[in-house]
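This section describes the prediction task in plain terms. A model, or a person checking by hand, is given the sequence of a single protein chain and must write out its three-dimensional structure as a string of tokens. No templates, partner chains or ligands are provided. The sample shown here is typical of the held-out split.
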Amino acid sequence: MAPERRAVRLRRAFGQAARLQCPRCGAGPMFRGWFRMAPACSACGLRFERAQGYFVGAIYVNYAVTTLVVIGGYVLLWAFTELSTAAQLALWLPVVVVFPLWFFRYSRSFWLALEYAVNPES
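The expected answer:
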């Protein structure tokens, strides 16, 4: 496949993933509730969970983004404010708990979009 077609498919899949829509058609929602994922796209029939344990990679994505947000925020506050380490801990501990719960759906959506962009036939 031509590299530009792959790049367009990747950009489109990630755009639809950011809206929590099917990476193939963009019409069907991926989630039925906050933590409940639809088994397949209601519009095109794309199965979201390909196999048991398919979204283990999404757990790593969620962990990596959470780590980048917290460490980056800590370093920025350390460099530009006079907050103590205890104050920083009090600030970032709730973020470490709440952010992964909020980002859960997006990490799954981005994981599926990446897999679809690399392997659209499955």
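For orientation: The chain has one domain: 3-118.
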